[in-house]
Structure formats: C-alpha cells, structure tokens
Amino acid sequence: MGIVYSITGTLLDQGGNILELSQTVMRDYFTIILAVEFDSPHDPKELAATIIERGKRFNLRVVVMEASEKQGPAPASIVDGDRFIITVLGDDAPGNIHTISGCLAAHGVNIVDLHARVVANQFSLVMEAYLPSELSPAMIRGELARLCRDSKFEAFVQHENIFLATTEPSPVRVGSALRNQGAAGVPH
Amino acid sequence: MYRTEDVLSTLSMIRQHKLDVRTVTMGIDLHPCSSPDLSILCSRIRERLVHYAGRLRGVCRDVEARYGIPIVNRRIAVSPIASIAAGHTAEGYLAVAKTLDSVAAEVEVDLVGGYTALVQKGWTDGDRRLIATLPEVLSTTSRVCASVNVGTTAAGINMDAILALGRVLKETAARTKDHDGFGCAKLVIFANAPTDNPFMAGAFHGSGEPDCVINIGVSGPGVVKAAVEDMVAHSPSRPTLGEIAEEIKSTAFRVTRVGELIGREVADRLGVSFGIVDLSLAPTPQVGDSVGEILQAMGVRRIGAPGSTAALALLNDAVKKGGSFASSSVGGLSGAFVAVSEDSALANAVEVGDLTLAKLEAMTAVCSVGLDMIAVPGDTDAETLAALIADEIAIGVINHKTTAVRVIPVPEKKAGERAVFGGLFGEMAILPIHAAGGSADFVLQGGRIPAPLSSLKN
Fold this sequence. Notes:
The structure holds 2 protein chains of 2 kinds.
Chain A: H1 3-13, E1 16-26, E2 29-38, H2 44-54, E3 82-91, H3 96-106, E4 110-119, E5 122-131, H4 137-151, E6 153-159, H5 161-167, H6 181-184
Antiparallel strand pairs in A: 1-2, 3-5, 3-6, 4-5
Helix pairs in contact in A: 3-4
Chain B: H1 4-15, E1 21-28, H2 38-53, H3 56-67, E2 71-78, H4 81-84, H5 90-106, E3 111-118, H6 125-140, E4 144-152, E5 156-158, H7 159-175, E6 187-191, E7 212-218, H8 221-234, H9 241-270, E8 273-279, H10 291-297, H11 308-326, H12 344-351, H13 357-364, E9 371-377, H14 382-398, E10 403-410, E11 418-420, E12 427-429, H15 440-444, E13 448-449
Parallel strand pairs in B: 1-2, 2-3, 3-4, 4-6, 7-8, 9-10
Antiparallel strand pairs in B: 1-7, 4-5, 5-13, 6-10, 11-12
C-alpha cells in the first residue's frame, strides 16, 4: 500500500499536474500509467530516478517518456463509428488473443480497452472497440463465428448501450453513448 | 472499462437464461380509416398499416443485430375494430378482419391484435356484430387476435356480454375442433384492459394513444429463476424472502432496461413514438422459461400447494418494483403470467393434480392477467364458461386490477385428457370444472353487476 501516494507525491514536488491516470493490479503486480504536465522542462531519466528513489521500498520500475505536443486526445478518425463490447469465451489455448485481434484489425476494428483472464482453463476476453461505420456488427460477428468454429470459442458483438442500460441507473439512451470519445479512444 | 463480471452477467442472461424481447408491438390508430364504404375502409386500413409497419421487420432485424438481443415476435395492435367498422354489417366486420390478416402477412408480423370491443358498461350494435363474428374470424384467420373488455372498476361488469362470450367460446371451439379448440386461444376477455398492452392475444391500440407507437414486451422467467436459484445455492445461509424479493427486483430492473433500450431504438429508427415497456414474465413451454419454476426455486416444490399464492404475490410485486425503478415508461400488464399450457411447470402441476382451477383463480388475484391458457372439458356449457369468466372479471373489478380469461373448452375431450395447442401455446391436461352447471341461473339473470363502492372516488 502507498505506491500511488508515493508516486503522486514525487510528481507534485516536481511541479507536475496529473492529466490522466490509469492503474490496475494483475496477479499482485501493480501497474500505473500517468500523463503529467510540468511548467518547466524535466529530464526523463532524472525524473524516473527520483520516483524510484522515493518509492524504493516498493521496488519500482519506472519509464518516463516525453510526450510530443501532438499527442493529445485521439484524432476523430480513430474513434469513428460506434463503441461495441466484444466478448470471447471458450477453452484456453495459446494464440487466442492474437487470432482474435488479428481478425479485428483486418476489419478496421479499433480496440480501446481489453481485459482477458483464464479461470479453470476457461478463457474470457472482454474488449471495448470501435467498429468503423461501414462495418455492421453482423459482419464482424460472422467473421468471428468463422474463427470460432476452428478455435472452440464463442464470440459476441454487442453495442455498449446494452451494458450501460443493464448496469447503470441513468436514463436509457440510444445512439452513441454520451462520453468523451476523444479522451476514451486511445488507440492500441 | 466495464467490469468483466457485469458484461458476463448480462451475456449469460441472454445466452443461458433466455432473456429476449418477446415482442415489439406497433400500435396504430385506425380512426382516420373509417368510411361508410367498405372497400374504402379496407383499402385505407391496408395503406395505413403498410405505411407504418412496412419497415418494422427490417428495423427490428437491424436492432437485434446491433445489441445481440433476440426479438422473438413483431406484432401490430390496432384501434378497437368495433368502433372503426361501426355502421357496417357483419360481412363488413369479417372483411376488415380478413384485411388485417392479409396485411399482417404482407408486413411479416406474426399477429395483429385489436379485433376488439369495449363493452364494460353497455354495447353498441357494432360491438354486438363484432362479438357475433368472433367464431368465424378466429377460425378462418391465422393472425388476427381478439379481445373484449367486459368489466371495469368504474363501470361494473356487463353480464350480457359475458354470456354472449360463453357462447362464442363454444362455437369457436367447435369450429376449430381439429386443433383442440385453438381458436379460443386467440380471444382474451378482460377486466380493466390496459390500452397499451404489447402482449397477445389481448393487445389493442387504445384511446389516448398517438397515431403510431412502439410498445415493448420483455420476458425473462429464465433470468429470474436463475437469479433466485443462484442466490439460494450460494448464500452462506438460507436467504430470507425479503432478500429473494430484492434479487428479483434487481433482475427485473436489468430486464426492463433491455426492453426500454430496444423499444426506444426501434421507435427512433422508425420515426414514431416510444410508448411503454411491459416486463411480464411470460412463460414458454421450454424448460427453464417458466414462471412455475421460479416458484419452485423459491421453495414451493409442488405448485398449487399452500404458499403458492404468497410466493406468486412476492414475485409479481418484486417484478413491478424493479420495473418501475428501471423506467418511467412501464405500462401494459407488467407482472407474472400464469399461462398454464404455455408453462411446463404449471402444466405438470395440473397433470399430477396439485394445481386446480380454484387454486389458479386464487393465484390470479395477486398476479398479472388471470385464467390464462386453460383447457377445460369440451362439454362445459356456455353458461358455466360465462360464470367462470364472471368470477375472474370480478376479481379484477373489485381489486382495481387487470384480469383476463383465455379458456379453451376442448371439443370431444374430457377432464384429464390432453389438449395440444402446439408451438408456444404448449399443451396441458384438461382441468375439471367442479359443480359445472350449478350457476346457470345466476348468469342468465343478465344485466350489469354494478361498479363497486371503491370506484366512487370523485
């Protein structure tokens, strides 16, 4: 406990302002990605060393990269189309994610978030993805079904609104979900 | 990022527990079609139905693909034909029914409801003609569904109409005896009929509705059953009935939300109004899609045993509460149906003698609809059928709720024999009617049972 406190404290002391943060813990391994803005230039190596030193009890590995001015929210073309949830369930086997992501990439599907896990040899993969407007969910569903026949898994493609409707008490809406698509549409 | 558990939970509702949109029902006002010229009337009806419903199939298919939720049926509900065809002869009414049937086939909807008369306080010539034509309409059309509202809490009960309907049932059953009297399954006799019910056979487009509206019927007995079973199986200690009610409520919330989303999307794409979503646990003969199995999951192992009514009351109430929290557009019937032949667990309970007609009648006092899809002996006289209807209607009128009767006197079959209606209508052992014939004089008195004291609220 205390990793976030340690890192954000270091950044604050260095004059940093956090613009975006994503953190997760997978199999007891803590990972955090931050976008930070500074008033004055900082050397990336020195900044990484400072963070490691202050958090040395956590044995941190830190990479600091300078972002160019151009790296703002994703351009509109990347988040064109509607956001769908693609779920793949089946037997675990090496290459599942590679096979599926290859199929999606070939059809211009932009994966913006992904979570996969294996429990008792059962593989589950949940992706948030933008389907280009010219690609119907039925088409990509058909493509995935063809893959599934060979690979013993099932794939489901559903507009995200169905999950918003069933998990959030906010009013039901149709069309694209009311979210900041630019910020959320980070290309992978 | 959505929680994986939430995604998988919603997915399992659809994949494993048969969550679907049972019906997208388009309500269409036919009043602008009225004409004293029969051919103009029928031509206008055809044009108006095609105008509004011509794209319904394609839009439903697209929405189904977008969300991965099956839309099982597409239907049309029209304004009560008794008033639309008023002034025409019986042949005119039949021509309108044939028009509805053929247009329903043309726009590829499976059923069209609204061959309807509202006669709770009295009946017009048009109402009488419509009721008189019911046996022929129900036996010669394939998609037309009929309903008659014979009572309301405000108006009382029209016993003359009920007696006429007892005779209609006999004649309709006789005309469709090769199919165990199936024609009667397309006729619903109501008290306090809702004007926006999307479920057949009782759907019609009531007064106060817009020109065209999309109403949605969502079901999901399998989803609710799975939720209750899961809770019972995984709770560290036996869950209380209050906890079970909460579980049903939250499941009903999710199911209702699916319905509203689909309804709004379909309406939006068609450029018409969205009306209501009706979450009614409507069973199908498939195992796992049964209201009776929910009661069993709650601990009523033998449906019909004492406790069945209380369990059904809990279920119905929790469904309504979940639905009302999910949406401000909840309407129709919204509760649990005990459609016996369509529900494998209820049909089995009848078969083994646990579930009787008297117990069913008691159960209908606390749930949606009423005596639904019940096969009775073919030799039941019209007066007894009318008395059976009157009992159920009285429950609705006195309790300020909708009740309905869909009863089938199966020609040439006796109690205990099997009535087979097929498909989603299922099958069941024919229920005996105790003391049949014992109330004929009561029914033959005719007239109107006055509105109850509780109706005087102004």
